Amino acid sequence: MPSSAPLFAATLSDLDDKPVALEHYKGKPLVVNFWARWCGPCRAEIPELIKFRAAHKGKIEVLGIGIEDKADSAKEFAKAYEMDYPVFVAKEKGIPLMQAMANTKAGLPFTVFIDRNGQVIQKKLGLIKKEDLDAAAVLLLKH
Known about the structure:
GO biological process, one term: cytochrome complex assembly
Distance between the termini: 16 Å
Largest sheet: 7 strands, mixed
InterPro entries: Redoxin, Thioredoxin-like_sf, Thioredoxin_CS, Thioredoxin_domain, Thioredoxin_ResA/DsbE_sf
Protein name: TlpA family protein disulfide reductase
Mean pLDDT: 96
CATH architecture: 3-Layer(aba) Sandwich
GO cellular component, one term: cell envelope
Domain Thioredoxin: 1-142
CATH topology: Glutaredoxin
Order of helices and strands: HEEEHEHEHEEH
Structural class: alpha/beta
Low-confidence stretches: none
Helix content: 25-40%
Radius of gyration: 14 Å
Number of helices: 5
Strand content: 15-25%
Oligomer: single chain
Protein backbone atom coordinates (compact mmCIF):
# COMPACT_ATOMS: atom_id res chain seq x y z
CA MET A 1 0.00 0.00 0.00
CA PRO A 2 1.17 3.55 -0.62
CA SER A 3 2.30 5.81 2.19
CA SER A 4 0.03 8.56 3.50
CA ALA A 5 3.11 10.78 4.06
CA PRO A 6 2.73 12.77 0.78
CA LEU A 7 -0.88 13.56 1.68
CA PHE A 8 -0.12 14.76 5.21
CA ALA A 9 2.87 16.77 3.90
CA ALA A 10 0.65 18.67 1.44
CA THR A 11 -0.83 22.11 1.88
CA LEU A 12 -3.81 22.66 -0.40
CA SER A 13 -6.27 25.52 -0.84
CA ASP A 14 -9.73 25.45 0.67
CA LEU A 15 -12.75 26.71 -1.27
CA ASP A 16 -11.99 30.27 -0.13
CA ASP A 17 -8.49 29.86 -1.60
CA LYS A 18 -6.86 29.84 1.85
CA PRO A 19 -4.01 27.36 2.46
CA VAL A 20 -4.76 24.37 4.70
CA ALA A 21 -2.10 21.91 5.91
CA LEU A 22 -3.54 18.41 5.57
CA GLU A 23 -1.49 17.25 8.57
CA HIS A 24 -4.39 18.82 10.52
CA TYR A 25 -6.34 15.62 9.69
CA LYS A 26 -3.66 13.23 10.96
CA GLY A 27 -4.87 10.84 13.65
CA LYS A 28 -8.41 10.54 12.24
CA PRO A 29 -9.78 7.75 10.06
CA LEU A 30 -10.11 9.31 6.59
CA VAL A 31 -11.77 8.69 3.26
CA VAL A 32 -9.82 10.88 0.81
CA ASN A 33 -11.58 11.29 -2.52
CA PHE A 34 -9.82 12.85 -5.52
CA TRP A 35 -12.29 14.27 -8.06
CA ALA A 36 -12.73 16.79 -10.88
CA ARG A 37 -15.77 18.70 -12.17
CA TRP A 38 -15.49 17.20 -15.66
CA CYS A 39 -15.45 13.62 -14.31
CA GLY A 40 -18.88 11.93 -14.56
CA PRO A 41 -18.19 9.08 -12.10
CA CYS A 42 -16.86 11.68 -9.62
CA ARG A 43 -20.18 13.50 -9.72
CA ALA A 44 -22.08 10.20 -9.41
CA GLU A 45 -20.35 9.16 -6.17
CA ILE A 46 -20.74 12.47 -4.26
CA PRO A 47 -24.20 11.58 -2.80
CA GLU A 48 -22.74 8.30 -1.40
CA LEU A 49 -19.84 10.18 0.20
CA ILE A 50 -22.27 12.68 1.76
CA LYS A 51 -24.43 9.85 3.18
CA PHE A 52 -21.38 7.94 4.40
CA ARG A 53 -20.01 10.97 6.24
CA ALA A 54 -23.39 11.59 7.90
CA ALA A 55 -23.60 7.93 8.98
CA HIS A 56 -20.10 8.05 10.55
CA LYS A 57 -20.13 11.65 11.80
CA GLY A 58 -17.32 12.32 14.24
CA LYS A 59 -15.79 8.85 13.65
CA ILE A 60 -14.60 8.99 10.02
CA GLU A 61 -13.91 12.17 8.05
CA VAL A 62 -14.35 12.49 4.30
CA LEU A 63 -12.00 14.83 2.43
CA GLY A 64 -12.57 15.86 -1.17
CA ILE A 65 -9.53 16.90 -3.19
CA GLY A 66 -10.46 18.56 -6.45
CA ILE A 67 -8.04 18.29 -9.36
CA GLU A 68 -8.94 21.87 -10.14
CA ASP A 69 -7.05 25.11 -10.75
CA LYS A 70 -9.50 27.62 -9.32
CA ALA A 71 -11.16 27.71 -5.92
CA ASP A 72 -14.12 29.73 -7.32
CA SER A 73 -15.27 27.09 -9.80
CA ALA A 74 -14.68 24.29 -7.28
CA LYS A 75 -16.68 26.24 -4.68
CA GLU A 76 -19.64 26.63 -7.09
CA PHE A 77 -19.46 22.92 -7.91
CA ALA A 78 -19.29 21.90 -4.22
CA LYS A 79 -22.31 24.08 -3.48
CA ALA A 80 -24.30 22.71 -6.45
CA TYR A 81 -23.58 19.12 -5.34
CA GLU A 82 -24.14 19.94 -1.64
CA MET A 83 -20.71 18.62 -0.67
CA ASP A 84 -20.82 19.13 3.10
CA TYR A 85 -17.41 17.61 3.79
CA PRO A 86 -14.08 19.50 3.67
CA VAL A 87 -13.16 20.15 0.02
CA PHE A 88 -9.76 21.30 -1.20
CA VAL A 89 -8.38 22.51 -4.51
CA ALA A 90 -5.14 20.80 -5.47
CA LYS A 91 -4.06 23.16 -8.29
CA GLU A 92 -0.70 21.98 -9.71
CA LYS A 93 -0.15 19.56 -6.78
CA GLY A 94 -3.08 17.27 -7.65
CA ILE A 95 -1.57 14.91 -10.23
CA PRO A 96 1.80 14.50 -8.44
CA LEU A 97 -0.06 13.89 -5.16
CA MET A 98 -2.23 11.14 -6.71
CA GLN A 99 0.87 9.59 -8.30
CA ALA A 100 2.65 9.66 -4.93
CA MET A 101 -0.38 7.77 -3.52
CA ALA A 102 0.21 4.94 -6.07
CA ASN A 103 -2.27 6.17 -8.71
CA THR A 104 0.44 6.22 -11.38
CA LYS A 105 -1.85 7.11 -14.29
CA ALA A 106 -3.66 9.76 -12.19
CA GLY A 107 -7.08 8.36 -13.12
CA LEU A 108 -10.25 9.72 -11.52
CA PRO A 109 -12.10 9.26 -9.30
CA PHE A 110 -9.52 7.92 -6.87
CA THR A 111 -10.25 7.19 -3.20
CA VAL A 112 -7.78 6.37 -0.44
CA PHE A 113 -8.75 5.02 3.00
CA ILE A 114 -6.36 5.98 5.83
CA ASP A 115 -6.69 4.70 9.39
CA ARG A 116 -6.06 6.77 12.53
CA ASN A 117 -2.42 5.56 12.56
CA GLY A 118 -1.86 7.10 9.14
CA GLN A 119 -1.75 3.73 7.34
CA VAL A 120 -3.32 3.50 3.89
CA ILE A 121 -5.51 0.43 4.35
CA GLN A 122 -7.26 0.48 0.98
CA LYS A 123 -7.47 2.41 -2.26
CA LYS A 124 -9.89 2.37 -5.15
CA LEU A 125 -9.58 3.75 -8.65
CA GLY A 126 -12.97 4.37 -10.24
CA LEU A 127 -16.51 4.89 -9.01
CA ILE A 128 -16.93 4.24 -5.29
CA LYS A 129 -20.14 2.53 -4.22
CA LYS A 130 -21.92 2.18 -0.90
CA GLU A 131 -20.58 -1.39 -0.51
CA ASP A 132 -16.98 -0.16 -0.93
CA LEU A 133 -17.47 2.53 1.69
CA ASP A 134 -19.22 0.19 4.14
CA ALA A 135 -16.45 -2.42 3.80
CA ALA A 136 -13.77 0.24 4.32
CA ALA A 137 -15.60 1.64 7.37
CA VAL A 138 -15.30 -1.70 9.14
CA LEU A 139 -11.51 -1.62 8.62
CA LEU A 140 -11.20 2.08 9.48
CA LEU A 141 -13.08 1.73 12.75
CA LYS A 142 -11.24 -1.46 13.74
CA HIS A 143 -7.79 0.15 13.88
